[in-house]
Amino acid sequence: MFKKVTFINVGGFIAGTVKEAFKRAQMDVNDVEPKAEVIRQLVGTRDVIVILLGDYPHNNEDFYKELSNLCSMQDRLFILGEQLQINDFKKLVPGVIISKEFRRPFNTNDIVEAIEAHDVDESSVINRKKILVIDDDPIYLRSVKQWLSGDFAVSVVSSGFEAIKYLINATPDLILLDYQMPAANGPTVFSMIRDNEATKNIPIIFLTGKSDKESVMKVLELKPDGYLLKKMNGLQIHRAIKEYFESPDHKIRNNF
Predict the structure, then answer these.
(1) The sheet that has 98-103: what strands, in order across it?
(2) Number of domains in the chain
(3) 62-79 tens-digit pLDDT
(4) CA angle 197-43-32, nearest 5°?
(5) Residue range 189-215, pLDDT digits in tens
(6) Per-residue DSSP letters for 166-214?
(7) Are 93 and 87 in contact (CB under 8 A)?
(8) Which residue has the higher pLDDT, 80 or 154?
(9) Is the Cα dihedral 225, 166, 98, 92 positive or negative?
(10) Which residue in 63, 93, 238, 79 sits closest to 166, CA to CA?
(11) Are residues 139 and 161 in the same domain?
């Protein structure tokens, strides 16, 4: 089967050797550096991702976050490196699904054979609805991702600024947006997305911690595609999102 491989590396002799092995196997190789925008562009593809670990900057937070978003829900990541590098990598991106790891010294033929035998689950890439969650609370972000990742492709960001950067290269099927955030709050981010020609039609559902009538009416004045209360548990959130996608008019039924 013809394979498309995104090979993430910082260059050098070993990277060149691995790349030549891929080309000899007639693989379509995309040779790239470890950057967040590279990972965002892989959303919706079936590319196998191979990372040759090396002197990556540990402060490259956006890269590791995007990689974690993508590979915590798809079995498509192969990592190559020293044992200590592999251990450090796992700490930086906890929860990612690693298809296989190759410790140095490795045989490039073994890597090629493993990739050729591997297939990215098409249903997990193509058929899953993509959801972007925007919230400044890291604990809540992790919870929502855990609740929804079984059936949806979930990406998370912790600020409006990160969300706007994300939307430059990716178009989710739905955005879950925290109404109350520091700096750029929910309504501000909502307006930025609606005012952009490229993102104005992406459905947005607000997440709000306040359930009194006055607060809810204030949220609805902006005319989002719905709202969800943050006090809802995982089953309720999951059911509401599933019903949203299954309903003919794509509306949240706020009857909980």
Answers:
(1) 28-32, 4-8, 48-52, 77-81, 98-103
(2) 2
(3) 888 888 777 766 678 999
(4) 105
(5) 998 999 999 999 999 998 987 766 776
(6) HHHH---SEEEEES--SSS-HHHHHHHHHTSTTTTTS-EEEEES--SHH
(7) no
(8) 80
(9) negative
(10) 63
(11) yes
Q: Which of 123, 32, 12, 107 is nearest to 75 (CA)?
A: 123
- Rounded CA-CA distance 237/249 in Å is 18
**Non-local CB neighbours of 92 within 8 Å, separated by 6+ positions:** 58, 64
Block residue for tokens 């929502």: 144
Residue 147's CB is within 10 A of a number of other CB atoms, namely 19
Q: Which secondary structure element, helix H or strand E, spans residue 80, and what is its range? A: strand 77-81
Torsion angles phi and psi, residue 28, rounded to 5: -85, 105
CATH number at residue 173: 3.40.50.2300
- pLDDT, tens digit, for every residue of 36-56? 888 888 876 778 899 999 876
Same domain, yes or no, for 109 and 140? no
